[in-house]
Design a protein that fits this description.
Number of domains of chain A: 4
Largest interface: A-B, 34 and 30 residues
Largest sheet of chain B: 9 strands, antiparallel
Helix content of chain B: under 10%
Oligomer: heterodimer
Strand content of chain B: over 45%
CATH class of chain B: Alpha Beta
Structural class of chain B: mainly beta
Strand order of the largest sheet of chain A: 13-14-12-15-16-17
CATH architecture of chain B: 2-Layer Sandwich
Largest sheet of chain A: 6 strands, mixed
Strand content of chain A: 5-15%
Number of strands of chain B: 17
Number of strands of chain A: 17
Radius of gyration of chain B: 18 Å
Number of domains of chain B: 1
């Protein structure tokens, strides 16, 4: 029997809508459902017929692994290729390859690796994972499959349920929410679809002259199956978008806006948005075909035309070998002396635009092109057209020019490399120690850890990171001083680039402002990423100096954060500590403790006069009964210099 | 592992304070870089020894220096007034070390061999020589044959000097520009490879090995 499909599009994301159904609740109402798909569902139970939209066929994606599948007759001819591509995309989007088998126990709700209490908190707040718990709601689901026009409509309508439901309810697969999993599946499906053709005459899908009929033919086997080659080669790319301009005038900050605008338009453009799996303000993760199919130089043309510098890591591999843990996979792959295809490159784009020889003058800002004389307010500068156009974009942070005294430049950064390390650590801890994993043998645990693909988890993390930035932006103006007045207003805490919440500048009168910013960051990190305090991939840097201090030097410090918290006051102190050290210092070093303050001053003087850490240590030891706190801090891996610097940078005195 | 076909003369350079300026015009802060580009050494060897087109590159040893800032007010002799104070970043010996040390490698040829005979010798490199910066002792250490390796470049050299330094492949370019005089009063900026470029070249130029495909 064939059904004439309605005129709606095929929406791959809908294939997992059944995961929002509470089967147990429906069973109690005498409705029998097997699994989370509805291909074999008895519709007479709820008195309706099966949907007629193309998206309905997505329900078959779990079982269709071949274009020659016997189930094909059930399907509407052409849509079998969509269903097969959905199957491939679904597998690639999974955080653990579904072919590895062994799982732990099933658990309700999502387990967020960096915030394990998240689900319970949401439940306590009245949220629920299930969207369909009654026969009426189930009918509504089928109606939605029938009538849905776009993935956006699906995500908008079931947003909250999708964010609380895991991609797979069994530990340790329950770490990615269905929203992210389906977002990723949908993007991968559309990229695969865009770059392949379904030839109905020969019943084959063709990408880059490689024909396939089975899923495995396209994807290949697991990494430890060195002969199971896959025919379809794709690329996963991590790219960072930098700029050569030195920030010598406030107008140079417009370069951030220019970059943010480009990333936004690239990730929203109908032709390119599905290539962008996720992005932050200076980073994008792309999934694209190999170079023969799409040239990266052309794809990223808008960025190159705007003279940005693009550094990227590119993994080019058979689909099943692609993972965001690129270096780990590369080492692992080469340990099997495999003949399969997996390449890892470090590349950059920008060189093509640069002249071999430039006759003076060189552009004062980017130093990459010839400058032309520009005169503004009797200041002569040599700027190229690109840098000049950035200057002409507007006057960001114009209030800053009127400030006097000291100001702090602040940047929050998500370190992508550190993030991967942290995610692997968190996942391994989860597999090794969580109660739901107790029934799994040690060897299976090792296999699960080996098969972890953190891409979707990274996407989830980046979303929470953006929530943290937004919360920081909202809460910074709610901090009160001792008199109950707002400590920061939009006049003394500036976000120079609208919507770019990683970067702010604030006026500093005393250590109170610095501590307020540090406390807010620390509290938010604890709220959103409590399990990442030890090795936080989210870092805060503050550069404190007189307002005339060169912007470029602030930026140089802000853009290379080493620790979770980094603070410098050029010519005075430089501090790098992790979150636990910060909490310890915050707890033990009380700014109002005048005796301790005097003693720390004395230590600072001793340090300056003798330039000897030993002398300072000796003084601490001699005064251990009077100031046990200092000895305790030094015993907790904090150096004397770190304690002194923390004190100097956050002290109560008004900074002139 | 293949050996580079180049032979280098290795010199050790010692100084108490040196400022090789990052080329930032305007503003009152002059940051310094942490290597000695080929163009700087070419100029220094020409001024001190009359050598034309010496091929040499300088790499500061990481544990021997720290950065500090020197502030001074330049004097405008024409107007007879002081200009805005300038803060100059420079390298000074790290705590516990006696001098900033750099390794200088010159490509061995007839011209550079004459340098060996003058060693040890005092030369001046970098900015603010009138204030005592950049006075260096240059001491010949010996000949070096270096293995070829693929990795991240740790100095700055002109793109057209690559083959003379034994760089057989440039895998990833981090470009910048170095000034090259064409006469006493003029010059041009030439495209150069900066730190972070990935090359196949003599091990002495490599900061860290690159382990992936190219």
């Amino acid at each position: 029997m064939s059904i004439i499909p309605n005129n709606k599009p095929f929406i791959a994301e809908l294939h997992d809508i059944g995961k929002l159904v509470d089967k147990d609740a429906l069973q109690k109402q005498n409705i029998q459902i097997r699994g989370h798909t509805f291909c074999d569902f008895d519709f007479s139970q709820i008195g309706i017929s099966q949907p007629s939209s193309p998206s309905w066929w997505g329900q078959f994606s779990d079982e269709i692994k071949s274009l020659t599948s016997t189930n094909k007759k059930k399907l509407m001819g052409y849509y079998i290729s969509d269903v097969l591509l959905t199957n491939i995309a679904d597998e690639l989007a999974a955080s653990i390859s579904r072919t590895w088998g062994k799982k732990g126990e099933k658990a309700e709700g999502l387990y967020v690796l960096w915030n394990p209490d998240y689900y319970q908190k949401q439940v306590n707040a009245g949220e629920k994972w299930a969207a369909f718990t009654t026969p009426d709601e189930l009918r509504e689901m089928f109606k939605f499959i029938e009538e849905c026009n776009s993935p956006e409509e699906f995500f908008k309508r079931y947003d909250k349920n999708l964010r609380l439901t895991p991609e797979d309810k069994s530990a340790p697969m329950n770490i990615v929410d269905l929203f992210t999993h389906l977002e990723l599946t949908g993007k991968i499906y559309r990229v695969l679809k865009k770059h392949s053709n379904f030839d109905q005459r020969i019943n084959k899908l063709i990408y880059a002259n490689n024909e396939i009929q089975q899923v495995n033919e396209a994807t290949g086997g697991r990494i430890n199956e060195p002969t199971e080659k896959g025919k379809w080669i794709y690329r996963l790319i991590f790219l960072s978008i930098a700029f050569p301009q030195s920030l010598s005038r406030l107008q140079d900050l417009n370069v951030f806006r220019k970059r943010a605008d480009l990333i936004k338009s690239f990730s929203e453009d109908e032709n390119t948005k599905d290539y962008v799996l996720f992005f932050t303000d200076d980073f994008m993760c792309l999934f694209i075909p190999k170079e023969d199919e799409i040239q990266i130089y052309d794809l990223l043309g808008p960025f190159l035309k705007a003279e940005f510098m693009i550094d990227y890591k590119e993994m080019e591999a058979e689909l099943n070998l692609l993972t965001s843990s690129m270096e780990r996979a590369y080492v692992n792959f080469h340990s099997f002396s495999s003949t399969r295809h997996l390449k890892l490159y470090e590349k950059n784009l920008s060189g093509g635009f640069l002249e071999k020889i430039i006759c003076p003058p060189l552009c004062d800002s980017c130093q990459m092109r010839r400058g032309e004389e520009r005169i503004k307010d009797q200041i002569h500068e040599y700027l190229c057209d690109t840098c000049y156009s950035i200057r002409e974009m507007g006057e960001p942070a114009s209030d800053y020019a009127q400030w006097e005294g000291k100001a702090a430049w602040m940047k929050i950064t998500l370190d992508q490399e550190q993030l991967l390390t942290s995610l692997h650590r968190l996942f391994e801890e989860y597999v090794d120690t969580h109660q739901a994993m107790q029934s799994v043998s040690n060897s299976d645990k090792e296999l699960l850890k080996e098969s972890f693909r953190p891409l979707a988890v990274q996407m989830d993390f980046a979303k929470d990171y953006k929530l943290l930035l937004k919360a920081f932006n909202n809460q910074i103006y709610e901090i009160k001083d001792n008199d109950g007045n707002p400590l920061f207003t939009t006049d003394n805490f500036l976000y120079p680039v609208e919507g770019y919440y990683e970067f702010g500048i604030f006026k500093v009168y005393s250590g109170e402002e610095i501590l307020a910013v540090l406390d807010l960051f620390s509290n938010l990190l604890e709220e959103y990423f409590p399990e990442c305090l030890k090795d936080s991939p989210i870092k805060l840097s503050i550069s404190l100096a007189p307002v005339k201090y060169p912007y470029q030097e602030h930026w140089r410090f802000l853009s290379l954060p080493k620790n979770s918290i980094n603070i410098q006051s050029p010519g005075s102190s430089k501090l790098g500590i992790d979150m636990s050290q910060y909490k310890l210092l915050r707890e033990k070093i009380k700014r109002e403790d005048t005796k301790l303050s005097h003693f720390l001053h004395r230590l600072a003087d001793i340090e300056i006069e003798t330039k000897s850490n030993m002398m300072v240590m000796l003084e601490i030891f001699n005064n251990r009964k009077k100031f046990p706190v200092l000895l305790e801090l030094t015993q907790n891996e904090l150096s004397v210099n770190q304690i002194l610097d923390f004190y100097k940078l956050t002290r109560e005195e008004v900074i002139p | 592992m293949k050996e580079s076909n180049k032979t280098f003369l290795h010199f050790e350079l010692e100084t108490q304070a040196i400022a090789i300026g990052e080329r930032i015009k305007g503003g009152t802060f002059r940051p310094c870089i942490e290597c000695i580009p080929t163009s700087t050494l070419k100029g220094a060897f020409r001024d001190h020894f009359g050598l034309i087109d010496t091929l040499a590159i300088g790499l500061f040893r990481e544990d021997t220096y720290q950065k500090d800032i020197f502030t001074y007010a330049p004097f405008d002799t024409f107007l007879g007034t002081a200009k805005l104070p300038i803060s100059l970043e420079y390298l000074k010996p790290a705590n516990g070390t006696e001098a900033v040390i750099a390794d200088i490698y010159t490509v061995k040829n007839g011209t550079t061999e004459s340098l060996v005979k003058t060693s040890p010798v005092e030369i001046s490199i970098g900015a603010l020589k009138s204030k005592g910066f950049g006075r260096c002792n240059l001491t010949y250490m010996g000949e070096v044959k270096s293995n070829l390796k693929v990795g991240y470049l740790k100095g700055r050299l002109l793109e057209d000097e690559c083959s003379a330094f034994g760089i057989s492949k440039v895998i990833k370019q981090c470009y910048g520009y170095l000034f090259c005089p064409t006469s006493e009063v003029s010059g041009v900026y030439k495209r150069a490879l900066f730190e972070g470029s990935i090359i196949e070249g003599p091990e002495i130029l490599i900061k860290e090995e690159y382990k992936y495909d190219y």
